[in-house]
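Protein: Transcriptional regulator,PadR family
Species: Monoglobus pectinilyticus
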Amino acid sequence: MSLIDLIILGIVSEKPQSAYDIQKDVEYHHLDRWTKISTPSIYKKVITLKEKNYLTTDVVKNGKFAEKSIYSITNKGIEYFQELMEKYSEQEITIPINFNVVISNLNKMSKPKALELINKIRDNIIKAQGNNKKYTELYSDIPLTGRTIFKQQAALYSSLLDWMSEFETEFLKDLKNGE
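Structure follows.
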């Protein structure tokens, strides 16, 4: 069971698509920002899902273009999709944040370098916040379920910036007391 299965089955449940179209749908919805999914993993998973009878394939030829496989979800695939939806909605929520490893090692850096790294992290949160705002405006016509993820991300970036300010104050105070 994987999130990639859930993503692919969710996309194909809306309408039959080629692996290329699935990959474009993933890019359009920026799903790679929220989960680890890559173009090769999509193509590999589509084949695996077909082998497990969660998807069927129709080969179509469109004029002068090469034949392509169009994938449709099967009844077994719908059941598996629903099982995955249940599984992932029941899991403990974790929010992996890649810069936490840097934060946990700041006390091993010189004070100026540690502060520089804190500023870099803050700058990147601000950049991500700006990108999220841009995407929110650019894709304002997407369904509520997509728009709400942009809202969630906005709230997280805002909270992270508040946390960064508090952390930096405490870090500086801690450094001052350690001197």
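Remarks: Residues 100-178 form one domain.
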